[in-house]
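Here is one chain, start to finish.
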Amino acid sequence: MRRTLPLALLLVLVLGVCAYAENLTVNGEMGSDISFEIRKNVETSAGIKRLTLSFVVPQSFQSPTSNQVVKDFELKFRPEPSEKKTNTNERGNQVVTASWDSPSRSVECILSFKAGNTTSLKLIDTGVPFPIPEIPEDVRYYLKATEQVQSDDARIRRLAGELSNGVKTEFDAVQRVITYVVDHVKYVSPPQRYDALYSLDSGKGNCQNFSHLSAALMRCMNIPVRIVNGITLSKPFDINRKGSTFTFKMGQGRHSWIEVWFPDLGWIPIDPQQTAMFVPNRFIRIEVGADNNETRNDGMMRWSFDRGSDAEPRDVELISSDFVTDKVRIAGKSEKFGPKSILLCPDVKAEFAKKEIAPPPPPVVIPDAEKPKLVYDTPFLFGNLEFPENIDFAFPPSPKGKKGEKTKSFLVETAEYVTTNITQYAQVFVINQPVKLRKVGLALHKFGGDGQLWIDLYADRDGKPGEQLSTSAMLDTESLSAKPGYRWTDFDFKDEVVLMPGAYWIGLGFTGNPIVNWFYTYGKPVGPSEGTRYKSVYEKDWSGALSYEFNYRVAGLTTKEYAEKKTAPQKRAVRKWKN
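Its structure:
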């Protein structure tokens, strides 16, 4: 039921801001039989003389944690190419290249196979000392510095030396690198560049940046790392914890991760965004190499054109998957050590430092005597602000390459359907200065339907939405653009709503039958680890937590005095507000 609470002055102060990280030790099994398909349609134009497409045949892969068995691979072309050849490159990738002379206006490629994917999360026993005493010649290739993995750069070498100081085991070195990357790189898409140095300098990047920076730091430590390109599937899975559920979900599209070589374990997959020593069985492994300049064969399109022509083909790639069977049984335990951001890892038997996260400074406390005197005269804007606005994900832009060449896009549509009659969603925001609230914006895309949307504002109660404090003005979905892509939708708060420092929740409400998606960002770039919640409409407790953070912005006015007196960056106040 909607309820509006007019507030002349809301004096809510959340005192228990933040304690520890959300580093989850996980155990259990995942097993799935997946039917997978990619349909690539290319529309050519006059002036194109030759069109060439390349694909990589996915291989079976085994490791102590994550395994993939590929069968029934098939690659069809319509019309048949003028030339087709298959070769295996130096990295072991089997590449199929098809070319058309004077291609027709439309070319269709259908790649399909069945994958048996399993993930086994049991105790990993590794006794490799650090530095690694001996590395085989066929593995040493993955120690090299490259254009995107600048392990020979002085800044990266200096950081690698700091991280590896006092390390006695390879696992300790690896977990220190992953902890650093998880905590110091904020996911953005698309980034300006994709190399390791860009991430180190800017603190930003997409999956390629996470992989390249992790590889650069480990290669400095003489740990072999190779880059993996593949596909993530959007089917979520749950990790059961004591009294709650943690839901892990990726967008469906191209993804990059790494494999780290352990002498006693072999190649171990790691997703530097949020998993260590494994990847979930929602990952389809396709191509490997030293960096993403090498792993560019799958989905590559090249063309030549007549002199004086700048013709360019247009392509659409549709990825689909069907989980014929899917069994998931995973339990997780929250640890008080590790990174501040979310990281999943199985139990590992190895010597490593369990560095506890120091609690952040206490939140700002405003004396009661000062509250009536506060003058709200300074613009305030806060939130998870970066996302690919107005992008048509049916035709995502590709990275700039050579003329006549187009590589695959890692731009993935990450969004949740949030106007369902079964599930409600809420996003926390934490402020450490007083704010007079004016608007809350959400990154939304309307796909259809009619109805109204609004935002309910909640106080925090033990890390979950609590008392409803206010409600925004209602917004007719007819006013939302029907153009492809996500953009800011602002909700006005016309009541006098003043928020003291603390945690508050944004809950999206709706009526009618609108079909609206809310964009999200991998990981927790701004807020605490459990700051994105969901529940069934039939339940009272917001017991479900999500692994990602919705994109939102909070706008209003703050006081010049407290804006200047702010003693700690906002992100230090939002790690986790209640243990």
